[in-house]
C-alpha cells in the first residue's frame, strides 16, 4: 500500500469539498494519529457555496466543475505557492479499475502520474483486507464516500441514502433553490427527499453497504 511507502518530503493532500460525511473527517484524524503522517487539508474559498457562486450555476454529470475547481486546481495552486511545479502525483485507482486508469487525462507537462494500486495489482478485496487489519477504518459504506449526495451516485442511490439520512438533502435542496438549477435533470433534490420520506413512512430503509454509484466517477480525469 502507498502509505507504507511514505517518504519524508512526500505530501498527502486532502481537498475538502465541505460536503463530505462527518466520518470522513474522523478518518483523516485517525489516519494522522495512527500513521504519523500529516494531512494537508485544503478548501476552496467559500467552500461548496463559493464554488457555485464562481461558476454561476450547479455542476452536473456533464458539467463537473466541482472536481476541477475544488480538487484539481485547488491542489495545483497550493503546490505552485510552495514553488513546486514539477512532481509526481499518485492516484489510487485499483487494478480492477483499469478503465479509470485508461481514461485519465494528463493536464500539465511538468506533472507525472502514477497509479501504485494498479501497478501492484491491488483489488478492492485486497484493500479491504489491508484495512481490516488496522485499528481504525473509514466507518461508512462506500456509497457515502466523496460528496454525500454526489449526482454521480445516481438518483436511486441518493434516495437509498436519504432513507437513512434524510437531513443530508437540506444543503443540496438549498443550492438548487438559490441557483435555479438541479444537480440531476428534472429530478430536484427535494423531490428525491420526498420519495425517501415516503419509503420511511412505509418502514422501508435501504441497506447501503453494497451499493455502488450509478456512474463511474473518474473524478481526477
Task: Describe, in short, the structure shown.
The chain has 221 residues and is mostly helical. The protein has helices at residues 22-35, 47-55, 65-81, 98-103, 116-119, 124-132, 155-164, 169-179, 189-201, and strands at residues 12-16, 39-43, 87-90, 111-114.
Structural features:
221 residues; 4 strands; mainly alpha; two-stranded parallel ribbon; single chain; Rossmann fold; two-stranded parallel sheet
Written overview of the protein:
- The mean pLDDT is 92.
- α2 packs across α3, α7 crosses α9 and α8 runs antiparallel to α9 (189-201).
- Strands 1-2 form a two-stranded parallel ribbon.
- It is globular and about 55 Å long.
- The longest helix has 17 residues, at 65-81.
- The chain is mostly helical and 221 residues long.
- The two termini are 22 Å apart.
- It has nine helices and four strands.
- It has two domains: 2-140, Rossmann fold (3-Layer(aba) Sandwich), CATH 3.40.50; 143-201, no CATH class.
- It is 42% helix and 8% strand.
- α4 (98-103) links the parallel β3 (87-90) and β4.
- It has helices at residues 22-35, 47-55, 65-81, 98-103, 116-119, 124-132, 155-164, 169-179, 189-201, and strands at 12-16, 39-43, 87-90, 111-114.
